[in-house]
Amino acid sequence: MRIIHTSDWHLGQNFYGKSRAQEHQLFMQWLLEQIQLHDVDALIIAGDIFDTGTPPSYARCLYNQFIVDIQTTGCKLIVLGGNHDSVATLGESKQLLECLNATVIPGALDDVSEHIVVVNDKQQNPCAIVCALPYLRPRDLVLSQSGESSTDKQRKLGNEIASLYEQCFSEAQRINKQQPQALPIIATGHLTTVGASTSESVRDIYIGSLDAFNATLFPDADYIALGHIHRPQKIAKTEHIRYSGSPIPLSFDELSGEKSVFLAEFNQASLADVKAIEVPRFQAMASLKGSLADIEQALTEFECKLSDAESMTPQKTTWLSIEVAQQDFLSDLQTRIADITEPLAVEVLQLKRARSQRQQQIEQLDNETLSELSVDDVFARRLAQEDFSEPEQQARLSRVKSQFKQVVAQVEERSTNLDSDANLDTNTSRDTNANLDTGASKVSKADLGEDKA
Predict the structure, then answer these.
(1) Which of 14, 60, 231, 258 is most buried (CB neighbours < 10 A)?
(2) Burial code of 151-189, b = ≥16 C-beta within 10 A, e = fewer?
(3) Quick check: 226 and 235 in contact, CB under 8 A?
(4) pTM
């Protein structure tokens, strides 16, 4: 008995203004080929089939067409709702899809037995039992009570999730005892577990209530197919608890690793083997980091655009994320990058400055207050947030420091003059004040002139 475990398709994702429709379509065609090649009995999509609760029409068309196409393989389809999915949107066609050998569990159901799916092989004999649990929304499991601490809420939600898994597993074991021979029990989930490695496109789903679910609280299932984390990985150093990851990169920081689906094979009631099948990259993407000189050098590796006469077939364009480490030419950075990339078969979707060093410095100084710092200290802290490592930047730094000293001197001189005038007004006679008022008037006019200048 074989299953393919995948998740986090995010159909309909808008990626910096770009559609992923073609990538998803090519992935689905590839996946159908893998299902036939490996004679797969069940395909499990562990949540986030769509990117939003109101997916665009083309995303729904892709989803519906895939359900039609998978019928030719005889493979059972199990779709679990994720935190990006709408329970109503997924649930609206649930009964219809049951007629197409597809089971959809959009959210937590009232009856635990409804989460149990018996999978039949192509000869219609039972070959596995699935505890099909989707993303579990806190409101479906617990009620908030006044006076509860954050720790109490986390503990209560974690216990309720663990309890639901145990109830489903107990029901699966009960059904298993009724079978002629023992079947493997597979559990699913869409959540963050302790120790999972995330990416920037992963959204926190239990904000303020549960940071991560402890993997030791999962039931003793033969395989646990998880979704929500976009990087494929094992959990708690086990072979049977895994995140499949997303089939396509959903953010530029996911380019460092391979994308895959997991092929799990069972020998009667036990897990025999789990193999990662690498998903081809259907859209060229790259992330470049460094100074402008480094980036310009890296861009020489990309192909130049072909003219219509030179190109017999459409040329593939690479999507780029560029992170510039230096701070100069900020005002015309976008123009400079556009000039550099214009002759190349690339498209810059993300352009940003490196901020990690500055952020670290800011965090180190979080406990300081203005009352503890001098004017020079404050300015030094601000300069520390910039990068003046290159010769051109050093010259700029000298100019900025010189201008700052001039401004401080002017402010201090003006402050001294104002204090002096106030003291004289208090300690001198009316006659003397009259004489001083004439001079003060001239100084005031001069100051106003400076301000206007």
Answers:
(1) 231
(2) eebbebbbebbbebbbebbebbbeebeeeeeebbbbbbb
(3) yes
(4) 0.74
